[in-house]
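User: I'll paste a sequence; please echo it back and then give the predicted structure.

Assistant: Echoing your sequence first, then the prediction.
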Amino acid sequence: MTWRGSTDTKDKIFAALVYSVPLYYGYNAFGGSILRSFPRIFLTLIEIFLMPLNLIYSSLPFADFILFLVLFLAVVRNDRISHFIRFNTMQALLLYMAAILVGMGLRILGLGIIASVVNPICFTVILAVCLYSIIKSAQGSYPDIPGISPTVYNQVP
């Protein structure tokens, strides 16, 4: 992927933190059944990491829509913010939208027993992609997710 300027520590931190948005949705929509089989310490660490988003979502009506609009309009479309942050924010928003579409599709199909197999798979994929993206962002490099990253490069000038 192309490198557009240098990134400092605050850019890396913010770029990594935006991936908590799709991770939070994946945790709430798909993660309940799989996380019960893990040790309680793992669940506690995830809850601590996602606690700020939980406070926002539980205190504001339409918080997910408001957060999406704020991130898209104030970060992705703002040319004064570094390309690295805008790229990672847009990629996190696309992951979030993909997770929402998968969740809606599963609810519409009403799979019942099959959902007990599909939900952990969806959560594991979301968790793996978000962790990969967080690690790459913290290293200061662009996370390359097939199918999503090329779309992000087309959307973020």
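The helical segments are 9-17, 20-30, 32-35, 40-59, 63-76, 83-109, 115-139, 149-155. Residues 10-155 form one domain.
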